[in-house]
Amino acid sequence: MAGWRALPVLDGATRALCDRVADRLEEEAEDLAETMTAGVFEDIPAYATIATAEERATVLMHSRDHVRAVVLAIRTWSLPAAEELRFVNARASLRAGQRMPLSAMLQSYRVGHRTVWERMVRVLAGLDNDLNAALALTTLTLSYTELISGALAEAYVEQQRGMLVQLDRDRRDLLEVLLLGTVDRQADVRQLASNFALVPGGDFLVVVLACLSAAAGPTGEVLSRAAETLRGQLSLGVAQPFVVVRHGEVVSIAPLGRARPAAIARLVRLAHADLNQNQAQPGARWAGGISTRCAGLGEVARGYQEARHARESATEDAGVRVLFEVRVSDYLLERADGTAVRMIPSAARRLLESRAPGDRILVETLLAYAAAELSIRVAADHLAVHPNTVSYRLQKLGRLLECNLSVFSEVVEVVTWARLIERSRRVDQRTVL
Asked: Residue 424 contacts by C-beta under 8 Å, 6 or more apart in sequence?
C-alpha cells in the first residue's frame, strides 16, 4: 500500500525541519502514547465500558506502535507498506472477536490522529513554525490515518466474515447433533447450544419452512434470504433466533422463554407472508410447519419430524400449519393409512364416494350437522333449508348406511368415514397431478 497517496515533494529545508519534528516525537513517544490512550478512553463510550487495567495496557501498547509508525513515516517520507500494518490487522481481528463496533475503532484512530497532529503543531511552534512543514506534516498524518483506517476496516470485516462462516458452521453442526437425539449425553454440545441461547432444559418449538411449488428447487441464495427473513421476524420475540438452512429447508429452534407459542406462530406466519409476497425466485411458494412443545433439547428430533409433517400437510391456502392449533381428531385423520379406508363398509364407501347430486346433498347435510355441533336448526340455517329437511335427509342417509344418526357415536363414526374418503380423494388428485 506504499504510495497509496502521493506525499508532497519536500525541499531540503522543509525536509530537515520535518526530521527535527520526528526527533521530538520520538523523544516524547511515551508521553504521546499515554495521551492518545487517555483520549481513547475519555472520548469513546465503547472503550469506557472496558476500561480495565489490562485493556488500558493493550491500548497503550497499540498507541506506542502508532507513534513509532508515524515517526518512521516522517523519517522515510512514505506511508507504511502492507507488511508494516500487521499490528493494525492484529488489533482489528482482536476487536472484531470482542464485538467492539467498527465505528468505535475508527473513532479511536481519529483521536490518535488528532493527538499526533496537536503535538506536531506544538513542536513546530517551538521551532521555526514553518508553514510548508506544517502543511506537509498535516498531509502526511491525514494520509497515514486514512491508510490505517482502511487497513483496519478491511481486516475487521474479514475477521467478521470468518466469524460468521464459523458461526453458521457451528449452527449446522449443532442442528445435526440435535436431530440425532443424543444431546443429553454430550457436555460439549450442551455448551455449544447454550452459546446460541438454547438452554438444554428449556422448552422449544421447531419450525420448518420449505418451497411448496417452485418449478425447480430453491437456490442457495433464495434459501439464505428465506433464513434471514425468518430470523428477522423471530428476532421480534426471540433474543437470539437459531435459524439454519438444511437440505432445501429453513429450520429454526425457537425457545419458549418470553415468547408464547402463539406469538412464535404469528411471527412465523409473518415471515411466510413476506416470502410469498417478495419472491426472489419466480414460481416459488412457501409452506411452513410448527411442532408441538419440545421439553428440552432432547425432544428437538421429535419436534423436527412433527414440523416436517405439518409443513408437508400444509396447503398453499393454509400457509403455515401449527400442530398445537390442530385438533387431535384432524391430526389422526391425516395420519390414517389405506387400511382405515378399507375398514369402511363397502356400501357406505360407494355412497360416500358417489358424485351423484342426490348422494352429495346427503353427505353435505351430515357434515353441516356435525359442524353445527349436532344442531339441526343451525345446520338448516347454514344450508338455507327448513329444519325438517335436515331431519329428513339425516334419516334417509341413516337408512342407506344402516346407522342411527340420532346417536352421537354413530354420527362420529360416519363423519369419520366421510372425512377419510375426502382426504383419500385429495391425495389421489395430488398423485395424478
From this structure: 341
